[in-house]
Amino acid sequence: MKKSIRRRLFMQIMLVLLIFIVFALLSNTILITPFYNMAKKRRLIEMVEIMNSFDGEYEENVETIYDIEEKLDARILIYDDDTVIYLSTGRVIQGQFISDFKPVPRGKNAMTGSDHMKKPRSILINSIPKIIDESRLDEINSNTTILTFTAMDRSKYLYLETVLDDGTYMNVVVEMQSLTEAIRIFNVFLSASAVIYMLIATYISYLMSKKFVEPIQNMNAVTKKIAALDFSDSVEIKTQDELKELGDNINTLSVNLEDTIEELTHELQNARRLEKLRKNFVSTVSHELKSPISLLQGYAIGLTSDVCKEKEKRDYYATVIAEESEHLGELVNELMDLTQLEAGYITLHKEEFEVSDFLSGILEKYKAANPDINIKYLKPYPKLQVEGDIKLLERVMSNYLSNAIRHVDDKKLIEIESLLKDDHVEVSVFNTGAHIKDESINEIWNSFYRADDTGSRSKGGHGLGLAIVKNIQLAHGMGYSVQNVAGGVKFSFGIKSSG
Predict the structure, then answer these.
(1) pLDDT tens-digit readout, 320-354
(2) What whole-number distance in Å separates Cα of residue 283 and Cα of residue 287?
(3) pTM (2 decimals)?
(4) Residue 294: inside a domain, yes or no?
């Protein structure tokens, strides 16, 4: 069974409050009486220090003595060997100085063992009704002793005997207020109040636990969605504390995890696509190699087995073998070049050259080889200087022209154009003919891909030319593209401007 953190927090708050109330009751019952006794004792000792400060001038400080009596509810006797100097006269303190008090014989005090006057001391002792118990509370020093007396009515008294610094004696009796009934009443009040406190605390604890747990519940809900790979929600915490920091960390984790998953998904898709391309590559290479090898093998067997007796047939067989050998050699060379380009093994030998001269030289060769096709160079810019590996860029242009010648329609029109852009010259090759299918626009740059999806060699080529173009342009850090335009298809590539 799941235990709610909100319930646990609520119960802990209530437990702390309950412990506090119980501790208050115990402290009030056990500790308050000893604390009261210690306070009374401390006040008596302070009174001795005040009396010592009078230096025997008691009559001049009578108002201070009155104040002490009232605050402590004390009865005070001050006397020397011959005379009672000061005596509290009643329950309601009204002190008096007795200058003609007859001296009384001094004798040994049976209780304290001191040589105080027995008669004056008995004046205060006799004011305590029916003493039934006497015990020493503390001996402060050799001159000061505090005793406790218990009367018949169970009331308690503190009795102090001391010798002041001026040699006079002082006895003080203080009645200890009974705290038992007060403590009992207070405990009843505290117990009754505790019920109200608990009800109020219950409501406050409920609100506090709710406010504290809500961010945790929010984080729990968000992390459950994250565990299910749902990153649509985020943690929102308004407080500026560790919970907000934790919430921010969860949000950061969610974003990073989503990005990582997207990246891994993309990489997985790429891996699957590359695996598909690899299989297609192996299949296509096998097909491309199988056809010429089969032809070579067949015609070679025909020649060696003396199947054809006529010289004309033998010459034809030899011509086919030579053509297919050349075709096979071209395929192998293109595969090697593509492999080196994709692996980055090709070193660029860059040089500056002029675009119009570069393109015109290539076009003249293709015009001569294809007199039935109208190959035009549109509005050449004068003296556009560019830089790059001229041999590799010539191959890019040759592959574009060869591709245009293979796919041009009956209009037999190919147009070449060079345009100055921001930091490069864009060269385009347009041929009239059918548009490339939309799904093939991005695929034609892959090895052995043919837009007709038949794998046919009827139009020549091995399906490697555009893949080689792509890798040459990537090596130069320049772009390449293809567009279906009005009347045909336009291929473009960029050459970086020099200077």
Answers:
(1) 777 667 666 766 766 676 676 766 667 888 999 99
(2) 6
(3) 0.43
(4) yes
